[in-house]
Fold each of these.
Amino acid sequence: MAMTNGVSHVGLSVTNLEESKEFFTDVLEFEVLQYEAGHHAYVSDGATMITLWQTADQGAAVNVAGLHHLALSVKSIAVLRQIEERMKQRNIRLQFGGIGVKGQEGGYVALFCYEPSGIRIELTTTERDVAKEIPIIGGCGAIEVK
């Protein structure tokens, strides 16, 4: 049996605290639990707390050691579509062009994006694309081709 009992919180080092805080609060509707301008913000969706720290000198990349991506669960494909529309309105960088079925992970539906510091975020649901209308995308291990 493991000596730990789940994740307490996830701490992210960001390049622009305000932009990252807005990503989580305005786009994903997280609540601000604690905030100190220019230093840190603690945000939560009610299940997961994320601490944002104004400490990064450069943007994130999946090809260096560290966080590959942060995956968050959403209730349905309909919620994913709402989030995707908000991201498009705010010109948030989407991977794979938007929502897709993760072929290599058994058909889960997901939306991959990059928050303002370049940290890769996956939003996923266990709801399946029964109608087979959503395109197949790379998934968690895929590297973005620019």
Note: The mean pLDDT is 91.
Amino acid sequence: MTTGRKIEKIAGIIRNQYSEENPTGIVNCALAENTLMQEEYLKFFQSNLHLAGMDLTYGDTVGGSQRLFKALCRLFERYFNPAIPVRQEHIITGGGLGAMADQLVQLLCEPGDIILVARPYYNGFDDDVSERSQGVMYGVDVGNTDPAGAGSVAAFESALTKLSKEGRTVRAVMLCNPNNPLGFNYERGTIVEYCRFCEKHGIHLINDEIYALSQFGGESATPFTSILSIDVEKEAGCNPARVHMLYGMSKDFCANGLRVGAVVSQNRDLILAFYALARFVKVSSASDALWSSILLDDEKLDYFVTTNQDRLGAAYRYCCSWFESKGIPYQKASAGQYVFVNLNSFLRSENDEGVPLSTPLARDSDLHMDLVNAGIFIGLGSSFHHTECGWFRFTFSVMRAAMDVALDRFGQVLERRRKEKR
């Protein structure tokens, strides 16, 4: 499917989303949106939008306000355990993390340069990296190796060797931590090994940590380790100038629509280059003020973070219990807003018109559209570059009333398919 057709299809689904006013609409369990804290955030934001005269001007810096820089430094100090204090000169902000990733690739890569990432990976990276910046995402299959473990680096070594022999330039590694779509945290030692790998080959390490505070896995889960908490020079012999962290407001703060993203880097030349482009993606003063208002309120911030984590955990367990009741395998997750489920047993070899479904993608798409037609939208595993058919990403951070409707529709499709196979 072309990018244009994909956008048109998703836009049509979004225009017809389920709500109390539109009960026959489609429940969106595909896009990573968190509505579990929507009422609380709306109440807070509606009461805490305090603008100053500066907010009606171009502001005090083009790459973000002094207010937001202070708020972000405070957030990182409280929750990310930085090995080296994050200062204003390490940060650049813009209108959404996708826009910031796009600009980062423009600055790091020449057209055609490759960024390595473990498969499956967040499908939005393809657009962020390639649509304007002309970088190339290259999915690395780590096979049966634990993707969260240090052994996964060997697959990256093999991929880089292969690409180099082909005359292609690898410019960076993208590490999505917590992982999207698999919902795990990388082990600290693994992150250190990726730093060593990047230093060895003279490439950059980009760390997407947009789900950093969306943790729900409990004591047995691998704890989240931010790249900020690692002294990469001391622990990995890695030049800090080649390590960059991405963060944003969308996921941990349940506000995809407010569009604030940040890049944190000790590479001063890179940050200065960002400033040359910053006016094209400048954060709205209103979004800047709203995010700052919660980041600078210690009591409210702690409440929102811990409550969101509790609700994510409850929603995850609720959905996984339903999957288990239906005999649906899934990959256990400990962070994020989604779970990867295996619906391979519900795929069929021909559609309702008797037309053969001859490829894995055709069989996956057939089930996907069956679910959409029934009023539930979930993510195709193949769109995340998964190597096996039958896998789908299911977003569980949906209000319970809508989730019950989604699971009821989901169950009807699966039960009908079970009966067809008997």
Note: The chain has two domains: 3-40+301-414, 53-297.
Amino acid sequence: MLTVLLISQCILVVVLIVFAVALLGMARQIGVLHERLQPLDPADQESGLEVGRAMPRMALEGVDGPSVAVGEALLPGHRQLLLFVAPDCPVCKRVIPSALQISESGAADLVFVGDGSRPELTELGKTVIRGRAPLTVAAELGLVLQVSRLPFAAVVDEHGVLAARGLVSNSAHLEALLREAA
């Protein structure tokens, strides 16, 4: 009888330790989510190239394709939607399909600007984007626009002028950004 009581107490201690480790893991994940979802200070969005200013002319290096020109004049009535994404960003992976649908509807010419290592970006291009829009790497463009959080979008009008910019987390944000740019 004493042996059974001793074994049950040992099992109870082990279960308690497992629960404590699980609780610490969950607390860490809550902290990570809290940092990702914290509200932005409006002053954070005001830095970088201002809306209404000409975009610098750049040739963005393609990850697995040709380079893409930014800041150049586009065909009349066309706009360029620059969407900054990262392979390890869960919100980016939710926004990418919406951006592809918007692009395929003809609302804007979509260009993904990736942040991450080339192998990760190549994998993102193969699994999520699947060649439906160009995927580029351009840290310089991120610096010009002062992109500090992802996913971030910028709309360039037919004259190569920055028409709208901001953080996006769903299709409604993307559509609002395109309306703002009109």
Note: Residues 1-37 form one domain.
